[in-house]
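User: Quick one: structure for sequence A, then sequence B.

Assistant: Sequence A:
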Amino acid sequence: MASYYSGFLSCEEPHFLESCSLCRKHLGLNSDIFMYRGDKAFCSKECREEQIESDEAKERKWKNSSRSLRKKSSETKESAAGNTVRTGTLVVA
């Protein structure tokens, strides 16, 4: 059976409203769909919450690793005049 959304796409990739972004459960035409970040559909609040928690954990891990990289890359050197000079790499996201 052809998908309801297949007429809207010219590529072979399934439409994001056809299945849950986490568990891949089929999303029926008359079922509730829980959205996250505008382009991710989920079959339940639980699946959506699990994805949100996963994304937040990745973001925290990324922030912590970028902080430690900045600390490691910032070295202090004494100049000839006795003033402290900071050198290093600035990481901007």
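Sequence B:
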Amino acid sequence: MPLWVFVFVILTLSSSSHCFPHPPLALRMRRYTDAIFTNSYRKVLGQMSARKLLQDIMNRQQGERNQERGARARLGRQVDSVWAEQKQMALESILVALRQKHSRNQE
């Protein structure tokens, strides 16, 4: 008989229910309640992880929105300052033209 057949027979006989009695009911109930607790605990941890991930994603999106708003505000301020400079230059050129016209009229 080959060695692997002998080992297989020994393992089969040793794992049968005739060799080892079932654990007592109290031990089986404790294991069962431990398994239920562990399973429930893992579910809660999974939900907490998913909630934290969702909050992180939402915070990132909110941060990106704030950055976009900030960029728009900066752009608006830049446009306003360019507009104010152009308006100032236009007013100065009008004032210079009026002074020149007034000087010519007095001569």
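The mean pLDDT is 80. The helical segments are 3-15, 25-106.

User: Thanks, that's what I needed.
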